[in-house]
Design goal:
The chain is of the alpha+beta class. It is built from 9 helices and 5 strands. It folds into 2 domains: 2-75, Arc Repressor Mutant, subunit A, CATH 1.10.10; 92-175, Arc Repressor Mutant, subunit A. The longest helix is centred in the middle third of the chain and has 15 residues, at 77-91. It is elongated, with a radius of gyration of 24 Å. Keywords: Cell cycle, Cell division, Chromosome partition, Cytoplasm.
Length: 186
């Protein structure tokens, strides 16, 4: 029984997006060559949940969207959010932020078009944005050489708390009188 519980814990821990009880059942049957039904799996999951309810653990077993996953307990969310914010601030350079803004407002856009706007090579910035999953390859342009097209990713939307690129601030919202040089002519 302990072997089954440890295998279930390992499956949940290794599943980035979570794992369903039926998937756990199937893997246990395949790997351990045991006959187990879904109710028994649910019973083991209940025991694991109880095990991690202790104050001595920082995470617990959660069921979200019919998928089991280990998540940090709510009491530690503030510290984790602070760490993530600290890491996020350190990781994107000014050039990466400029590149990301150009891609966000002009998507889909090729690297060459981004470089024409910025006036410098953007290979490194685009690579970093791809690694951070803030931009994605959205296809190929129909121009000569079929260059890759870049667009913002779902991670970008989640990170900035927006539902679509239509929710991005408009330039008229950003440009204020104190940011202008000279007289405005109307």
């Amino acid at each position: 029984m302990k072997d089954i519980i440890l295998n279930i814990e390992a499956l949940i821990f290794a599943s980035e997006e979570g794992i369903s009880a039926s998937d756990i059942k199937q893997v246990l049957q395949d790997v351990l060559a045991i006959d187990i039904n879904k109710e028994e799996v649910l019973d083991f999951l209940g025991k694991i949940k109880l095990k991690y309810e202790s104050e001595d653990t920082v995470f617990s077993l959660f069921l979200m969207n019919n998928q089991y996953q280990f998540l940090t307990k709510e009491i530690y969310h503030e510290a984790i959010n602070h760490l993530q914010a600290h890491r996020d601030r350190k990781k994107l350079s000014q050039s990466a932020l400029e590149t990301l803004a150009i891609i966000a407002y002009r998507q889909p856009i090729t690297k060459i078009e981004v470089e024409q706007i910025r006036g410098v090579n953007c290979d490194y910035s685009i690579q970093r944005l791809l690694e951070k999953d803030l931009v994605k390859i959205a296809g190929k342009a129909e121009s000569i050489g079929k260059p890759l097209l870049y667009a913002t990713s779902d991670q970008f939307m989640n990170h900035f708390g927006i539902n679509s690129v239509k929710d991005l601030p408009q330039l008229k919202d950003i440009v204020a009188e104190e940011n202008s040089i000279g007289d405005t002519i109307e």
